[in-house]
Amino acid sequence: MIELENVYKTFTLHNQGAAVIDVLTDVSFAVAAGECVALTGSSGSGKSTLMRMIYGNYMAQSGVIRVGDVDLVQAQPREVIRVRREVMGYVSQFLRVVPRVPTLDVVAEPLLKIGTPADKAKARAQELLERLNIPQTLWGLSPTTFSGGEQQRVNIARGFAHQFPAMLLDEPTASLDATNRAVVLELIEDAKARGAAIIGIFHDEAARARVCDREIDVTGFSPQAAA
Ligand code: ADP
Ligand code: MG
């Protein structure tokens, strides 16, 4: 479902004499439908960079990043947008809060964008907010003023609203209490059971061991971390 072949990523530091640093070299691995793979490696080894690159937030210098049957490195921008809307979801570490949009709409939005009828999208959003223990009194309010943990749970509800065939999860259980952490792990297991291919970063080893089938140590692709 997700396949990387010989992917390279460098950053050019324009504020430091255009120095070029190799962040990731020769990354190749594949994640099958129904499988969860954990990215591991020390802080700064390139886990988040790798995930952002797979999602297309960072451009790869070379190589192939295939999601379904689309190579995102070569694809036209509108094709990348379609893949991100329909095929591959990304739960970043923090919710990007849009001012004045009520929580229920924040969660339903990804479904509305792919043409889900409004009543169905709303029902799914409600189901997820309930599962993630966001009290109903908050559903009509913008998440801007919510606590960090509440914003994170809204972010997860939004990320899981559409049942993407591929998902990227950057620290989805960080700073959650045990109850909500268990809910997130259940959502991941449900997604795997319906055949989603998942790449996750989990600092919590117990969480990683429970939902992930395999680990990939990003340090092996990182000349900086190896040095
Ligand atoms: P991890 O998530 O494993 O902690 P990151 O992917 O955040 O690591 O960072 C990997 C390396 O890439 C670090 O050395 C970091 O400083 C560098 N890096 C990340 N993003 C950028 C950027 N936009 N520009 C330059 N260097 C970056
Ligand atoms: Mg990171």
Helices, by number, come to 8
Query: How much is the average pLDDT?
Result: 94
The helix/strand class is alpha/beta
CATH class categorisation: Alpha Beta
List the domain count as a whole number: 1
The CATH architecture category equals: 3-Layer(aba) Sandwich
Cα radius of gyration in angstroms: 18 Å
CATH topology annotation = Rossmann fold
Small molecules (ligands, ions, cofactors) in the structure = adenosine-5'-diphosphate, magnesium ion
Q: Which strand order do you get reading across the main beta sheet?
A: 6-7-8-3-9
Shape field: globular
Beta-strand portion reads: 15-25%
**Unreliable residue runs:** none
Q: The biggest beta sheet, please?
A: 5 strands, parallel
SSE order and pairing:
Blueprint: E1 2-13, E2 19-31, E3 36-40, H1 47-55, E4 62-67, E5 70-71, H2 77-86, E6 88-91, H3 103-113, H4 118-131, H5 148-161, E7 166-170, H6 178-193, E8 197-201, H7 205-211, E9 214-217, H8 223-226
Parallel strand pairs: 3-8, 3-9, 6-7, 7-8
Antiparallel strand pairs: 1-2, 1-4, 4-5
Helix pairs in contact: 3-4, 3-5, 4-5
The structure holds adenosine-5'-diphosphate and magnesium ion.
Describe the structure.
The longest helix has 16 residues, at 178-193. Helices cover 37% and strands 25% of the residues. A five-stranded parallel beta sheet has the order 6-7-8-3-9, sandwiched between helices. α3 packs across α4. α6 (178-193) links the parallel β7 and β8 (197-201). The chain has one domain: Rossmann fold. The chain contains eight helices and nine strands. The model has no long low-confidence stretch (mean pLDDT 94). By secondary structure, it is of the alpha/beta class. It binds adenosine-5'-diphosphate (ADP) and magnesium ion. Adenosine-5'-diphosphate binds at residues 11, 23, 41, 43-49, 224. Its EC number is 2.7.8.37. Residues 2-227 form the ABC transporter domain.
